[in-house]
């Protein structure tokens, strides 16, 4: 089913391209928050199972994808603005659940710390509160390519690091996308990464105590950049959080292979809709039962 598309005015500054996937039986709506350099297309695999149960909202940041043509790119969009955009879209689409991927977790958790009344639960995937050694090495190399506006080299870097577990077809799509971005998109990412690597923590831990809703953190077993071990630090700062590990998966989780897609589906639907939905998702796939580690 094709989504209904619209351009939404946010913050009185930006125009944001949105996609609304309606599910006839859905009582709840979920919004998905992209990682860096990504567009709504990055969630193609995720929408397939979420739309079974929910209305799904996707959007492109003002500097990316189909939002680009509607905005002035004279300066980078700040993380505070990204959080503000998310909060306005939550109200606009009357959203109940939130899911973020990778660097989208920064804006997502900043937004959640403001306690949006509509949000009942959130899922944060492929994210960590720590910048460990592999991630710092990746970011520092990325800064060189971003500053030089060398999209080809940056595409190879992504595929050889956080994207190394992707199938070859996805790697080709990934490289084609990253190597053909507009100059302002590289400037946007450079500004963000440069800020991140000079911060003691890219995740504002002191704000997390304000988050009261249940959170689920999902990481890949083989993701050394946002590791399942590092993410457990959140348990020291959040009131209600759970953790899940997707077996034999790296950073891109449900994009990497069918088993990871099935596990991701079971974990997310189980968390958002309760044990009954988890059992239904596992039916016929008993090998997935150990995917959840609470």
UniProtKB/TrEMBL annotation:
Transmembrane segments: none annotated. GO terms for molecular function: hydrolase activity. It comes from the Bacteria. This is Alpha/beta hydrolase. It holds the Pfam family Abhydrolase_1. It comes from Pseudomonas lalucatii. Keywords: Hydrolase. Residues 29-257 form the AB hydrolase-1 domain.
């Amino acid at each position: 089913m094709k989504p209904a598309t619209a351009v939404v005015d946010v913050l009185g500054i930006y125009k944001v391209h949105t996609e609304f996937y309606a599910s006839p039986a859905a009582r709840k709506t979920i919004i998905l928050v992209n990682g860096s350099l990504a567009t709504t297309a990055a969630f193609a695999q995720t929408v397939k199972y979420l739309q079974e149960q929910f209305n799904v909202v996707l959007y492109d940041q003002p500097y990316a994808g189909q939002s680009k043509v509607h905005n002035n790119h004279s300066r980078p969009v700040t993380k505070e603005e990204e959080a503000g955009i998310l909060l306005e879209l939550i109200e606009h689409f009357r959203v109940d659940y939130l899911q973020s991927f990778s660097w989208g977790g920064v804006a997502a958790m900043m937004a959640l710390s403001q306690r949006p009344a509509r949000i009942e639960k959130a899922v944060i995937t492929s994210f960590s509160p720590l910048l460990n050694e592999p991630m710092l090495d990746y970011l520092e190399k990325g800064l060189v390519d971003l500053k030089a506006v060398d999209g080809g080299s940056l595409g190879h870097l992504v595929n050889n690091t956080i994207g190394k577990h992707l199938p070859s077809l996805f790697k080709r799509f990934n490289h084609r996308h990253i190597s053909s971005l507009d100059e302002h998109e590289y400037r946007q990412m450079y500004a963000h990464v440069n800020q991140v690597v000079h911060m003691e923590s890219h995740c504002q831990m002191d704000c997390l105590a304000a988050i009261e809703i249940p959170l689920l953190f999902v990481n890949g077993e083989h993701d050394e950049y946002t590791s399942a071990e590092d993410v457990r630090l959140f348990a020291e700062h959040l009131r209600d959080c759970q953790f899940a590990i997707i077996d034999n998966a790296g950073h891109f989780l449900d994009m990497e292979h069918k088993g990871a897609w099935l596990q991701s589906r079971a974990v997310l639907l189980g968390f958002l809709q309760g044990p009954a939905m988890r059992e239904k998702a596992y039916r016929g796939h008993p090998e997935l039962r150990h995917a959840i580690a609470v």
